Each structure stands twice: as C-alpha cells, then as structure tokens.
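User: Second chain of the day. Same drill as before.
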Amino acid sequence: MTLSRVTRLTSVGCGGQVLLSFATQELVHDDLPEDIKLTDLGKWRLKNLSHPEHIFQLEIPGLPCEFPPLTLNATKDFSMDTIRLLIADDHALFREGLHALFSALPDIDVVGEAADGATAVTQVDASQPDVVLMDINMPGVNGIEATRRVLSNHPQLGIIMVTMLEDDASVFAAMRAGARGYVLKGAHHEEILQAIRAVAAGQAVFGPAIAARMMNFFQGLNSAPQTGSSVAAFPDLTEREREVLTLMAKGVSNKDIAEKLFISMKTASNHITNIFSKLQVADRAQAVLRARDAGLG
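Assistant: Same format as last time:
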C-alpha cells in the first residue's frame, strides 16, 4: 500500500480505532491471537483514491471497539459490496451447508446452485455470478470441463475449484482450465470465504501448500531424465493400457480408441477405468495431463 493510501485509510477512523486494508488483513489473518478479531466494515471510497478500499477493523480485548461509522473522508461503496456466488457441487449437504453459511453474510449473495457441470454452465448464463465454487468431480460434465465452457463465454468470471483431492494432476488441470483458486473440502469455512473475496477482487488463490507442490513439480520436471519411455513413466500400466492412454493424450474419443485398437467400447471403457485407478486420477482430463507431462501424445 502506498503512503497516500495509508494516509487516506487512517484519516477515516476515530482515535484509537485500528483499521486495515484488505491486503493487510490477508497477511495477518492467520497469525492473529485467538482473542483478537477482525471486523469487516465493507468497501469504502476514500478521498482522492480512484478505487474503493475494503476496510477491516482490528478488535483488541481491553480496548474500545465501538466507533462511529466511517463517514469522514469516506463514502460507502454500495455498488461493490455484494459478491454474487454460484455453488456447484453434487453433494447436496455440502452445497446446502455453504449456501446457508454464506447467505448469512452481508457481502455474499448466493445466486444459484448446481449439482452437475452442465447445470453449472447454464446457471452461470442465467444468474451472472461474480465467483463460482466448482467441484471437480461431478456427474456428467466434470468441474474441469465445466470451467472451460464457462470461461469461454465469461472470461472475466472467477472460478474456485473445490475438491477432496490435492494431487498434482487435479491442481494443474484446474489451473490449465482457467481456475483462479483451489481449496479443499476439508478447509475451514473462513478459508473458503477468504478465497471467494480474494478471487472476487481479481486475485488468484492457491495457498502455500499448493504453491509448494507447484515448485516441487516443476523442479522435478527440470531434473527428471527425459527417457521418452511410457513404461518408465507408468510402470503399473499394461501394454494395452499404455496404448489407450497414448490415444487419450492425442485427444482420441473412446469410440475411436475402440475402433483403432479393434476392441469393443466396453473393453475400451474398462481399460480407461483401470488407467484412472492406477494413475490415481479422478477423470479423463487429469489422466491426459499426466500422460502429456510424461511425453505421450
């Protein structure tokens, strides 16, 4: 934050009131003692600043925490207060729980739900959300493919992938599809909420654990011997399964794979299911990503 922005922020508070910008509260949030709280005061337009500032108040035990509204040198920015959120997840309890939780917040407006990827795509067109919480593993059209379809028509939309998985294939498949965030279903609701607000503000959120995995992944690519051997890359696959995976990496459909290898559709599907299991991936997109990273296709 520039000196001018700091000066403007401090000028709107009262004596003894500790105010933080959105960026500052993001830095300190996880390190605050349990008895110190942050109160979200919303977005305000500060004098001589072109963009609204999301302001938080630090509440410290033993110090005053009740202050007049921030009216001096600031005006409430009602136009940018509400984040329109769409929740796409095939687990009804998880989806409805998030809906109930976030609907109670003043800056979140849950504008729709979807139980599968195809519905998520149509719901985006109908409800025009700012942010989508998108489960990776959904029936029919999965979250990765749904993300691609949504962003092809709404490139400005912020999509956060929500999943039980934290494997490299899922992370990179989400990134390549255009997702701006990635959170685990086991994450605390505050972490998910922070991701929503950050993505709505134009940021990308993958977290320190994901960032570390990315570094390790690319370091591994640089140091790995380039043998070009699919056997070395996927020793658990049979020769036929490697043939199928190579065709998948080339973008060949299940029907064409069956025709090229002179096998039935059912046999081709069985091979693909075995490949998913042995590679420990959730769907075709992740399998293809693994294959292409290994030099297939």
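Residues 224-228 have pLDDT under 50 and may be disordered.

User: Great, on to the next one.
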